């Protein structure tokens, strides 16, 4: 790694790589420091791989704005760079009278957020679209899709490198200190001096932020399990229940080969641990049976887990994304990306533009 550098991005997940690519394309000298020996080994490869429409988030929030903007950028990017994806659509279903109000709320928030109108479906219309699903009513989101997140990250890395940027693997950032208007960074035995540091370290981002900004929020972790569903998929689209505290509910997602998986549930944990705990299998099955009564348990197999990078404690309202630049925390050259949970994959290219605007001295958010 160079001793003196323009921009250092900490973390090579989808967001860090998107930020680094954007900065490199603007002519900045950029290095991404990643502690693992591969890119994207954490949240960016342990998620639902859904391109979200922008339905759930409060109007005007960063999540709403960056999801809607990011979705458009992502579809454009995938088409231009041959990244595997499919605009398969999704339905969100209500299985009790009390959930109908929530569905109506989604219709209103989708319109308010610019996510595109949702189509209201009665129970019969739900069955016409997805015969395996039992529901009182549903809404259809045609702009929701799926993406191969590995393909996307490899593409971003290729673009970064062809714009002159570089990736350093096995390079854990262990210390950042202020040095006048610049930042001194220690990573695996190297010391370097950076004009800008973009902290895109996902689950570790709050801990890194607190090296320089002690008032940064604490990190909380909400783990979710995914089960693979073997055999042919009973669904053609993504199927979601109404959202639950901490997550979007145990839903059906499809990979690009058409294989179905269910997840993720919500289990708050104290430390980063991707272990798969199969002991709560019954609760998981029950959640699915609400909308898919014909579930065949013998086809359900433990898959993988992902951990949501939360910045609010269990029970507290969900936090918005935080893109904290010098105007927010007062440390020149530092941008902290905090709480970049779902829809962070969808929003990654829009987050990258927002960070680049801060670095260019023209913040837009
Ligand atoms: C269960 C789950 C489901 C989700 N589903 C969706 C979805 O369907 N659609 C969607 O849009 N979003 C989804 N998300 C959100 C999305 O996955 C994340 O917002 C996105 O992947 C975040 O990317 P990132 O680059 O910020 O973080 P990460 O992918 O976590 O990358 C952070 C990187 O930083 C590295 N790192 C950490 N500490 C250091 C250090 N000290 N030095 C160097 N490197 C370091 C890590 O090794 C890691 O590679 C989901 C998230 C979860 C957990």
List the helices and strands and how they pair.
Elements: E1 4-10, H1 14-25, E2 30-33, E3 50-51, H2 62-81, E4 85-86, E5 90-94, H3 100-113, E6 119-122, H4 123-129, E7 137-141, E8 145-147, H5 149-162, E9 166-168, E10 173-179, E11 182-187, E12 190-199, H6 205-209, E13 220-229, E14 238-241, E15 251-254, E16 260-263, E17 267-269, H7 281-289, E18 300-310, E19 322-324, H8 326-329, E20 334-338, H9 344-359
Parallel strand pairs: 1-2, 1-12, 2-9, 5-14, 12-20
Antiparallel strand pairs: 3-8, 4-8, 5-7, 6-7, 10-11, 11-12, 13-16, 13-17, 13-18, 15-16, 19-20
Helix pairs in contact: 1-5, 1-9, 2-9
Bound molecules: flavin-adenine dinucleotide.
What is the strand content? 25-35%
Backbone shape: globular
Small molecules bound in the structure, each named once = flavin-adenine dinucleotide
> How many DSSP-defined strands?
20
Structure, described:
- With 365 residues, this protein is of the alpha+beta class.
- The protein folds into two domains: 4-46 and 150-218 and 318-359, FAD/NAD(P)-binding domain; 90-142 and 220-310, D-Amino Acid Oxidase, subunit A, domain 2 (D-Amino Acid Oxidase, Chain A, domain 2, 2-Layer Sandwich).
- Helices cover 28% and strands 28% of the residues.
- The protein contains nine helices and 20 strands.
- It has helices at 14-25, 62-81, 100-113, 123-129, 149-162, 205-209, 281-289, 326-329, 344-359; strands at residues 4-10, 30-33, 50-51, 85-86, 90-94, 119-122, 137-141, 145-147, 166-168, 173-179, 182-187, 190-199, 220-229, 238-241, 251-254, 260-263, 267-269, 300-310, 322-324, 334-338.
- The strands form four sheets. Strands 1, 2, 9, 10, 11, 12, 19 and 20 form an eight-stranded mixed sheet that branches.
- Strand 1 (4-10), helix 1 and strand 2 form a beta-alpha-beta unit.
- Helix 1 (14-25) packs parallel to helix 5 and helix 2 (62-81) crosses helix 9 (344-359).
- The longest helix has 20 residues, at 62-81.
- The chain starts with a strand and ends in a 6-residue tail after the last helix.
- 48% of the residues are buried.
